[in-house]
Design goal:
It contains 5 helices and 5 strands; from the N terminus they run βαββαβαβαα. With about 140 residues, it is α/β, with parallel strands linked by helices. The radius of gyration is 15 Å and the shape is globular. This is DUF934 domain-containing protein.
Amino acid sequence: MADTLRYREDEPVDHPAVTVDAFLDQSNASAVRIEPGDDARELVPHLERLALVEVNFPAFGDGRGYSSARILREAGYDGELRAVGDVLVDQLAYMRRCGFDAFEPDQQLDMDDVEAAFDRWPDVYQKAADTRTPIWAKRHS
């Protein structure tokens, strides 16, 4: 779990993320930060250039980042997809289902709670951007 949960003070910035507009204007950028209101579909033609996509959650109640993650994963993005900002432990399992594979919350999270959040539901009921097989497919295979 330590490889997917980070805090800004824990590591140097290896790919400084730029805004979506700046990314579209720069041919050498390899990291982008999606803010609420940005259209993730603008990045689809450029997925092979991206090493990192940060999706900002400025407030826990703003769920637009979930859609951005799923759009990118379903379009074939296979690089690091990092949820940043007001990321709460209760959201982690849902974020992972949408395609996030790294998390950088503003506030320190208890690691036991993080592990419990990822392990809470062994089965899922619908397909999502992650690779988990829905329980109905397990029953009928």
